[in-house]
Amino acid sequence: MEKIFTKEYEVTYRDTDARGECFLTSYMNFMADCGLSQDERHGFVIADMVKENHTWMLVDYEITICKYVKYKEKLRATTHVEGMNKFYAVRHFKIYDDSNNLIIQGKTLVILVDAQKRRPLSIPDEHYMAYGVKEKNPTIGRNKLKLSKCQNIDYKKEFNVRYSDIDLNLHVGNVTYLGWILETIPFDVMTNYKIFSVKIKYQKELTYGDKVSVQTEIKHNDDKVSAYHEIINDSEEVVALLETHWYKI
């Protein structure tokens, strides 16, 4: 059975949007912090990994939002590693409110790499023991997300990677990608709809000073909106593909 880690959070003023509700990016930051805190509990400190030129890179991220909470609400995040295989690991997250209602759940596929050589590394045996994973799961890493490119470009914006966008590994943090694509969503959708599903496929790294173009296609279907996003670097390479799905308030 997997070892579940739990950590508590409070929604601060900076975590809330114009509706007074918690930003999706803040939920993602809570989940990331919960995962890193579990790693540190087992002695796997990210700063030490950086010194050893080892890093976990996100491959896929799937998120489902069940409910939005507001300023000052207390949250409880849980996480566990479902399985590992060779270089890959799958981690699950859930966040609950103080009445134990499920707020959001997420699932990530990550790969362990040598940060200098940019080659996959085998996950050490001590990781299997620490996270309660008894054996390698041969399906982990095979069923990656398959997301489509935009068929039409309805909205487009360009961004420069700022110092505040990069993390300890000196590449753009995963939450920044979502922040960029939300800037291409029409104001009418942002104010009259809420996201209930996000899928992200990370394909290439971005570093400080890079320039990116974010392209978005919007499709309306009754009271729902589906948006398809591409993030492209200045070499015209697709850095990430995203899908967001919205319901009308």
From TrEMBL:
Q: What InterPro entries does the annotation carry?
A: Acyl-ACP_TE_C, Acyl-ACP_thioesterase_NHD, FATA/B, HotDog_dom_sf
Pfam hit, one: Acyl-ACP_TE_C
Where the record annotates domain Acyl-ACP thioesterase-like C-terminal, the positions are 155-247
Keywords in alphabetical order, please: Fatty acid biosynthesis, Fatty acid metabolism, Hydrolase, Lipid biosynthesis, Lipid metabolism, Transit peptide
Report domain Acyl-ACP thioesterase N-terminal hotdog positions: 3-130
Gene3D superfamilies cross-referenced by the UniProt entry: Hotdog Thioesterase
Q: Which domain of life is it from?
A: Bacteria
So what family is this one in?
Belongs to the acyl-ACP thioesterase family.
Q: What is this protein called?
A: Acyl-ACP thioesterase
**Species whose genome carries this gene:** Terrisporobacter mayombei
